[in-house]
Amino acid sequence: MKNVGIICEYNPLHGGHKYMISRLREMGAEKIICLMSGNAVQRGDFAIMPKNLRAVSASSEGADIVFELPFPYSMGSAEFFASAGVDILARLGVDTIAFGSESGDIELLRDLALKAEEYKPSEDKSIGTAADYFASLGNLKSNDILGIEYLKAGKKFAPEMNFVTVKREGAGYHEDAENGAYPSATEIRRSILAGNIDDYSEEQLPKESRSAILEALNEGEIAGMKNVESAVLFFWRNADLAKASECAECGGGVAERLAASAREVGSLEEMFSLAATKRYTDSRLRRAALFGMLGITLADLKSRASYVNLLAANPSGIEFLSSVKGIEVVSKPSRIPEGEASARQFALSSALDSLYTLAMAKPRSAGYFVRQSPHILKNDNNF
User: Fold this and answer.
1) Most buried among 26, 59, 162, 355, by the most CB within 10 A?
2) In the chain, which ranges are E strands?
């Protein structure tokens, strides 16, 4: 466990995330390398605050270096999210990938990963493919399911990679914390929007994460799809359905359902609610809505990342950076690698970021993130 990688969102970073980092140090991790989602997250939404602020939180609370998991992988379903994350970390040179899980049982998850590889869809067409897949694995929660996808991706992209899991402590993904336990990111996001993060102790919401949240609130950088509601509705009311249906997550009648729903309602929540069926989950529809707007294809999700952006690092992380040989690391947009794949990746990331700037409480210019520089800490973290 020399170089340990974590695929994460930190949306936002909370006490459970900090606990995992410190636990990995106790287990012998010399360097912690985080591959963190940019401004779009897996559930089909924008991150509640910008990637640069979340990266500062991570580096200040124990990570040695933070790279960006690029869009659209960061908003892909579990399979694409995990595959891109494992592939990138392997190319960065990590020897171990760590993830949190509800079970905390790596051998159980390995067995279930083998079972998942043998999965065959049900003949019951009323059940969505994703729901049917999850049901086939048993009564599992979200982090266990994601862990299974990491293990499957490891077998494909990094056969020599080691995997460890840290048992998740505190509230579940959509649950509220009880009796001082670590809160979930979902609960904290609700508290941010309600203006009551002062209710959390420093153990529940670490100091640097709290500072980043307060900065985002003060600077008008809290973001949400609600802020670009009209743009999303307008797109889907007037979408070229033949073209939209070719986008990722939009096939099988999803584009048509989104378009029909958008014409009948006046809000995004109503659109997703009206379009939802047993086959089409809320997250699927949210991903489809943005993938259709931004022209994301299945080929984009299946392609390998051409490069990764550096978001934050301390001196130990900079030392690690000097050893990276398997993938280009970019600290300035002017330094992206040449070639069609890099140009496509940059164009998609830029399109997402330009939409994200409109989703902020105080909208910014389209090139706002192009002008952001990596955050470099002068001293290593005290772990």
Assistant:
1) 59
2) 3-8, 31-37, 40-41, 45-46, 65-69, 96-101, 162-167, 307-313, 328-330, 375-376
90, 326 in Cβ contact below 8 A? yes
- pLDDT digit string (tens) for 181-230? 799 999 999 999 999 999 999 999 999 999 999 999 999 999 999 999 99
* Cα-trace Rg, the chain: 20
Contact 143, 102 (CB under 8 A): yes
The SS3 assignment for 158 reads coil
Instruction: Dig out the tokens for 381 from the structure.
Output: 């973290």
Asked if 72 and 39 count as a contact pair (C-beta separation under 8 A), the reply is no
The backbone torsions φ and ψ at residue 377, rounded to the nearest 5 degrees and listed phi first, read -80, 145
- pLDDT over 70 at 123, yes or no: no
Q: How many CB atoms lie within 10 A of CB 188?
A: 26
The yes-or-no verdict on residue 23 having pLDDT over 60 is yes
In the predicted model, is pLDDT for residue 122 greater than 90? no
Torsion of CA 36, 189, 131, 292, to 10 degrees: -70
Q: Classify residue 338 by its DSSP letter.
A: S
Token digits for 284?
């699927």
Q: What is the largest CA-CA distance in the chain?
A: 58
What backbone torsions phi and psi does residue 258 show, to the nearest 5 degrees? Answer: -65, -45
Q: Is the pLDDT assigned to residue 168 strictly greater than 90?
A: no
Tell me the one-letter amino acid at 274: L
Q: d(Cα 239, Cα 260) in Å, to the nearest integer?
A: 10
Tell me the C-alpha distance between 196 and 335, whole Å: 41
